[in-house]
């Protein structure tokens, strides 16, 4: 287990010669099933790793009881006994649900919600909850009044968000798999910035937080961050066994690459900031490699998606509306434990913006709802099975780039410049997966995203397996 210091940065690796070794979640589960290691032994090794990396990454928010919550599923499930963690915005019995905020009380949840129940049904052993930006509203876990979560590849850099601590723990090797959720890219963004696999499923595929059913557009999807495609595929298959949405075709257990596909290459952002060439170049190279292996690659334009010219404005208005809904629900649940004066500046600014933009919300919602139909029609009209693009529209930012104490306009411009692709799939509801796709000039990971029509997670996982074969994913200790 090493924390490697250089004159420029700190790289944090938890990989060591213990019970977990370099195993992924599938490997840990197999070792537990065979009796090679025990559940308690795996939990102890993971806890030691987490405690080693946490001072540098600030990834852990709350610790569960020693040894974790324990597997809450039968021994025959895919991930039985695998040590893991849950995001701190998810109600899990025995852990506080603090939503990334110090404005909420740290009252422990008496019972788990449906999201946590589905997560636990896969067999994972929850050892802790993970750090996130306040209410999951931003793309970096930076705070006005406490230390940020940091990227284990280089602690001078952001770990991304909002599934921030989850990404840090999995990328560093402390855990093989961790829970996340995605409302604008919050699984895929940290996956891209930390060299991980992050799948955002079709809207309604996974169990959701009950309050989200009341929203005019549910942009949030639950999932996990992993180091291997097979772990993400295993998780989806087991989660689907626990909770199945009969309105969607089953994903099943995807085990490897599939048939040759017609893939649309996207090299444009939905914003006016465009895409940094460092993010584009490795995706173009990947497209060439996929073409050489038999896939058909065609150029697509954002115009093919028929997005309204005000998509970014409408999404930001809706983001403010979600902020008001989320803060209001959390405040009601916390009662006297809610201290609004301790909200971060970005949250307060979004709340003020929500009040100002309230008259324009009906129109914004109407236009955003139209995105789903246009998105789905594009696949039919262009005859493509999937879209390939960079996950991020700029490279990993340094800590401070998304400091919530910045002037709000500057903060939002910086955010929009980074996140110019991922929100499309939250609005459309279609699935998307981020996979590692090389490194930038500073040595920080880059991601490529495959997106598909509703219900087609299986095709995206097959493509992700193929990328993993073409260019095996780097681990932080290599």
From TrEMBL:
Q: Extract the Pfam families matched here.
A: Amidase
- List GO molecular-function terms, semicolon-separated: amidase activity
The record's top EC class is: hydrolase
Query: Mind telling me which InterPro entries this protein's record contains?
Result: Amidase, Amidase_CS, Amidase_dom, AS_sf
Enzyme Commission code: 3.5.1.4
User: Which residue numbers delimit the Amidase domain?
Assistant: 73-461
What does the record list as coiled-coil region(s)?
none
Catalysed reactions, as listed in the record: a monocarboxylic acid amide + H2O = a monocarboxylate + NH4(+)
Of which family is this protein a member? Belongs to the amidase family.
Identify the NCBIfam families for this entry. PRK07869.1
Name of the protein described by the UniProt record: amidase
- The record lists the organism as Tsukamurella pseudospumae
